[in-house]
Amino acid sequence: xxxxxxxxxxxxxxxxxxxxxxxxxxxxxxxxxxxxxLKIIKHCKEFSPALVTGQLLGLDVGSVxxxxxxxxxxxxxxxxxxxxxxxxxxxxxxRCLREVNVDNNTVGWYQSTLLGSYQTVELIETFMNYQxxxxxxxxxIYDPSKSNQGVLALKALKLSDSFMELHRSNSFTGxxxxxxxxxxxxxxxxxxxxxxxxxxxxxxMTELQTVQPVSQCDLDRLQLSSTPYMERNxxxxxxxxxxxSAEQQKFQFHYRNISRQQAQQQAWLQRRRADNxxxxxAGEEPLPEEDPTNPIFKPIPDPSRLESFLITNQISNHCNxxxxxxxxxxxxxxxxxxxxDV
Length: 342
What we know:
By secondary structure, the protein is α/β, with parallel strands linked by helices. Helix content is 54%, strand content 14%.
């Protein structure tokens, strides 16, 4: 997480030099070159389980965001001098790419994740920093641990427009969320990914295809052991449940404070009314029953629900992963049982 935070800080410094025009069309698909995907996978796998980030380069064409190239960010600790050095490194990389006639327009960034644990406040802050300079950008998430299960765990994410509008106002109270009709599933939008290769590369890949009916990769898909993956997902799920319970305790403490404040206000009003009754009997002017300067009449601000929304999103993600792996395991068991009976 420290590497991710450092990468986000470097990106904030780097984005000060980038400006693009607003895109009139909504983003429908992210088209990625096969070479860019291989670079992302190679970078994430080499440093796994450490989390890494990198820059996405490409073109914004109509409703399609084309990712044609990428390069990794250096892994550094959090420091102002190192942040400036990282920004200079990115600018130098883009200058070199421009000199060799390679697309050097920033269209987002990619980052690795562990068991889908990417829905964090740092990711949202990085998105907002990008949105200040780039109207349409995406974050490519790659999960090496899930890819080991035979699935290319690659997805493109962006923040929803309604969530970004609410984030700019920095008001995640229950009243505002109900007014905007925003739920925890409305934070991120997943954009479909389309892999694109040049005709020459497609022809070479066709020539490289083997004629063997069964390969070792096909046999590896029948591997029944997925205990470590399931255990880690369950551990992460338990941690998320603990975090959600802690968030709920914050809200319970908030409501207890409101109840205590209301009781104090009622007690103060009763005393004030008794004093006014005595003053009226003495022929004096009654005192106002509301005193804005009194601390007990100051409203208690509602706690932010952003953390609970992100934790709920993360819980749903872990549950979906567990459900998917369990379903695949049952299918493999039925398949191997049928083969064994034959």
